[in-house]
Amino acid sequence: MDWIAPQRLRIDGDALVANWRALARMSGRAVCGAAVKANGYGLGAPEVASRLVAAGCRDLFVATWGEAQALGDVGPARVSVLHGVRDEDAPLIGLPGVRPVLNTVEQVRRWRDRGGGACDVMVDTGMNRLGLSVDDVASGALDGLEIDTLMSHLACADEDHPLNARQQAAFAGLAGTTAARRLSLANSAGIALGEPYAFDLTRPGLALYGGIPRAELADVIRPVVAIEAQVLQHRTVRPGETVGYNATWTATRDTEVAIINLGYADGYRRAFSDRGTARGPHGETLPVIGRVSMDLIALDVTLAPMLAPGDWVAIDYAPAAASAASGISQYELLTGLGGRFQRYYA
Questions:
Q1: At residue 223, what are phi and psi to the nearest 5 degrees?
Q2: Measured at the alpha carbon of residue 332, what is the angle toward residues 327 and 338, in degrees to the nearest 5?
């Protein structure tokens, strides 16, 4: 008999695909890819990739060569490694369908020294993170390279910030200056900024997985992941008694409390202490009370007193709402989902 973990992620594969298709429509004439780095934003990169490729996605993005290797066979899709290529990556260079995104003049030299081949290139247009400079491109640093996609990355796409337009203009100015087959700038939030940001290829990440980086996506994106965890113990806490570490919550009445198999080691952050909520069997709101600890949380289940050890509760974890409640970014909430969860695809 297969062992069942006391915490699980229910992942809606249909919603994942529907989100990709919605973002593809919003991308207009541009092709829509998918960022599947960080283990598919915590949901399981091979499973995410297989569903998106079956739906028609042909461009996948990971951070490292190790992530590319972990994807396995992605059929007709191509995989771009966003962090480029190091000397230490030599054993994995040559993985079928995988190419680096070169970020520095040194990486360009390293790639040439290895014989070159198809690659992508990142150009910095104002984020000052990864990428060659516009001056590097103008000086001919990329001459002779077999470039599939020239890309840049928006720093403030989730805000109405003047840097967005400056980056778009700087990137548009690179059209035709290299042998690149395609140009790519927009992430999830960049897609919502409109057609001028789409260029030839968009690279959504967060919104694929149910995150809402801009209000324009709120009615477009469907939730993808749900956390469920088992009740470990049910107890009654009397007035004046406290719950959890440092006694931060005190009962003012007889309170039915369920102790749940979930904690910050699973990615359910301490920031949800006295702020998070769960759902009872009939949709009752069950507040998190006291400190979130490493492996456990406590819920006030007075509205659902029949919850017993072994029962499952659904934890409220829609990325945008959970971010607002905890102050933790949607990206961190998704990518921080831990290895103890069993992941089930519907």
A1: -65, 145
A2: 120
Residue with tokens 């369920």: 258
Whether the Cβ atoms of residue 63 and residue 83 lie closer than 8 Å to each other: yes
pTM for the full predicted model: 0.96
Q: How far is 127 from 121, CA to CA, in rounded Å?
A: 15
Classify residue 216 as left (phi > 0), alpha (psi -120 to 50) or beta: alpha
Closest of 138, 170, 139, 135 to residue 152, by C-alpha = 170
Question: 290-309 in b/e burial notation, b at 16+ Cβ within 10 A?
Answer: bbbbebbbbbbbbebeebee
**Is it the case that residue 1 has pLDDT exceeding 70?**
no
Verify whether residue 37 is a known catalytic residue. yes
pLDDT in tens, 247-265: 999 999 999 999 999 999 9
Cα 43 from Cα 335, distance rounded (Å):
8
Would the CA dihedral through 37, 173, 148, 117 be positive or negative?
negative
Report how far residue 297's alpha carbon sits from residue 313's, in angstroms, rounded to the nearest whole number. Answer: 12
Contacts of residue 144, defined as CB under 8 A and 6 or more positions apart, other chains included, come to: 116, 179
Catalytic option among 41, 197, 209, 245: 245
DSSP code of residue 203: -
Catalytically annotated residue among 37, 41, 209, 331: 37
In this predicted model, what pLDDT tens digit does every residue of 294-318 receive, in sequence order? Answer: 999 999 999 999 999 999 999 999 9
Q: Give yes or no: 41 in active site.
A: no
Per-residue HEC secondary structure of 23-71 comes to HHHHCCCCEECEECHHHHHCCCHHHHHHHHHHHCCCEEEECCHHHHHHH
Q: How wide is the angle at C-alpha 339 spanned by C-alphas 260 and 312, nearest 5°?
A: 30
pLDDT for 92 equals 95
Distance CA 8, CA 313 (A): 10
